[in-house]
Give the backbone structure.
Amino acid sequence: MNIISSYVILYPMIVSIIWIVSSIFFSIQQHVVPLVNSHHGKPDDLVSVLIPAHNESATLLGTVESATELSYQNIELILINDGSDDDTLSVMNNLAEKYNSRCPIKVVTVTPNQGKANALNVGAQHAQGEFLLCLDADCYVDKEALKPILANFYDDEKVGAVAGKPIVRNRTSLLGRLELLEYIGVIDIIKRGQAFITGHITTVSGVVVAYRKEALADVGWWNKNSLTEDIDMTWRLYRHNWSVRYAPQAVAWILVPEHIGALIHQRQRWARGGFEVLWRNKGMFFHGSLSAQGLLVDMILSDMWALSCTFVLLFYVITIGFTQKLILDGVILFVLLLISLVQFIIGFIDSKKSDFISWQDLLLLPVYIIFYWFINLASCLAALASFFLDTNHKGTWNSPDRGL
C-alpha cells in the first residue's frame, strides 16, 4: 500500500517538474533556433482548409469568416456537411456564396452521418492543396495561423502534421474558466515539454491541425472506425516514420463544454482514444523510435496513476470511516500546490498575449486541482470500462455542448 501511495504522490510531482523545465527550454529553442525555409523564393503552395460539420449551423459563420481572413492568401475552403438534420447545408451554401470572392469555396455533403474521420476523408478527395488545414466548425482561427504551420512543414520534408494551439473562448461559467486553466497550464505545457524532449507530441488537437497531403496518403487517410481521429492519425504517422510538430503560435479560439456531464463524456472519449492508441500501437514498444516508446510509456504511467489514485482514495475513505480521523499530510499538499502554481505561472507567461488572460484567473488554481483529479479519474475509469465492454464502437457525431 505504501508503494502505491508513494506512486500516487510522486508521479504528478515528478512529471510536473519535467514538463515545467522542458517547456521553458522549448520556448527558448523557439526563439534561438530558426527554422529553415526550403520553400523560400517559390510560389505559395495551395492550402486546402477542411471544415467538417454536423448540426453546426449556429457556429459556422464565425469559423468560415475567420478562415477567409487568413493572411496567407492561396487557400481554398472545403465545407463538409456530414449528415446534419438542421439547416447546416443551407448555411454552408449561403456562406459559400457570400465569401466566394475572397477564396474558392466548395460545399460537400455526406449522408448518412458517419463521423468526423469519414467526413475528412470525403473532404480530402475534393482538396487540391498540398497541405490540408483542418478546423472544427466552432472555432475562430487566428489570421496568422498558417505562417508558423507552413514554416514547420518547409523546415523538414518528413513533417507530416503540425498541431496548433486551442484557446478557450467561452469563459462565463466556472467550468469554462477551469478548462481555460487546463488548456494553458496542463495541455499546452505538456505539449511544449514533449516537443522539446522527444521531438514528438502524444496527439495533435483536431480542432486546429494541418497535414501534409502526401503523408495522409502514405498512411491510408483517416480511420473512420476510430473514436478520436486526431489521436489515431498522430500515431499512424509515427508508424510510417513521419514526424509531428507543435506550433503554439498557430492559435484557434474554441468552445468547450460547460456542463459537467458533457465534459466527462468528452474526456472519456479522449481517454478511450488513448487506450485504443496503446492497443493498436503495442508493437512500437519493441520496434518504434525511442521518442515514440517514451510517449507510450508516459501514457501507461498516466493511466496507472489514475487507477492507483482511485484505489488509494477508496482505501482512505474506508479508513476514515472506521477510524473517524481525517488523514492529511500538510507538507505533501503544500508541495503539490506549489508545483502546480509554478506550472501555471509558466503557462500564464507563455499564453498571456495570445489567450487574453489575467492574473486573477490563477485564483481558481486550488479549485482546479480538485477538479482536474476528479475529471481525470472519472473519465479514465469510464473509458476503461467502455474499452472492454464496447469494443466495436465506431465514430459518429452528436450535437456537442456549446456552453451556457
Observations:
- The radius of gyration is 21 Å.
- The longest strand covers residues 243-254.
- Residues 300 and 364 are 29 Å apart (CA to CA).
- Strands lie at 47-53, 75-82, 105-110, 131-135, 140-141, 159-168, 208-212, 243-254.
